[in-house]
Design a protein that fits this description.
Helix content is 94%, strand content 0%. By secondary structure, the chain is mainly alpha-helical.
């Protein structure tokens, strides 16, 4: 009877030890899965950031050209002898100013999007650092 009890207690102890070891492995695997998911998100955000930076540089060039054109147009605006030509010039200038304003709004949106993407990247990187720290501790 004592031999059976001893065998049972040893088997039960081994079972508990192996189940605890399996649970630690499972937790480590879950954290590694989360780490891979965050790495995927990080790569996607970095790709989006690069695309937005390229778009932003194109928008900047367009805005700089429109701003210079608008400055020249408004600086050189003068009323002529004919009211009709003055009205035409005023309409052209107003149209150019609206186009410039729209381009400046697009540039501001692009700049805001870049700032948001950079903030998202920093958040994901900090989460990855925490997970890396947890996984390293559990592996030791």
């Amino acid at each position: 009877m004592k031999k059976n009890l001893l065998k049972f207690s040893i088997a039960f102890g081994l079972f508990l030890f192996s189940s605890q070891f399996f649970a630690q492995d499972l937790e480590t695997l879950k954290q590694q899965k989360e780490s891979l998911k965050l790495n995927t998100d990080l790569i996607e955000k970095k790709i989006d950031l690069l695309k937005e930076q390229q778009d932003n540089s194109k928008i900047k060039e367009k805005v700089e050209g429109l701003n210079n054109k608008s400055d020249r147009k408004t600086d050189n605006f003068s009323s002529s002898d004919s009211p009709e030509s003055t009205a035409k010039d005023a309409k052209k200038t107003a149209k150019l100013l609206k186009e410039t304003q729209s381009a400046n709004k697009d540039l501001a949106k692009s700049n805001d999007k870049i700032i948001d993407l950079e903030a998202d990247i920093k958040k994901i990187e900090s989460k990855l650092e925490k997970l890396k720290f947890l996984v390293e501790i559990k592996e030791k």
